[in-house]
Structure prediction request, 153 residues.
Amino acid sequence: MNKLIQHIKNLVSISDSHLSLILDKVVEKQFSKKAQPPRPAEEEKRTKAFFVKSHDKIEKVLLVDILWVESAEEKYINIVTAQKKLRMRSSLTKIMNQLPEKDFVRINRNQVINIYHLEAFDEFEESVIVAGHDLLIGKVFKSRIIELIDIIN
Prediction:
């Protein structure tokens, strides 16, 4: 450390007390960054969000709040949360590319669900219940849902 201080002094004309003050602040900042515990994954999920232009407003949507996304009229999709349904101009394919694939799964041609809001899976009826809503599963998409959920016999 003394060699570093001497080297800095040689490069810049600075008093010992001023240099000491600067170094103390640098060291303090370094240690304070390390002292902060990393944010848990669940906390990060709650804070991850994107903005949606729906009608004439741009609204923030937290990923964790999304129940499902569905195709609407031509070139539009609906993002469904517990509080509201936002309509935006996009395709289901485009929005799926922006959503984390470990959290969102396509259940049929027209719908993608947030796996964290999945309440039940009925293999016989080929449907899922998300936030109290019964949604049909396409046969092609059934195996992906089974992959993502842990089934205890």
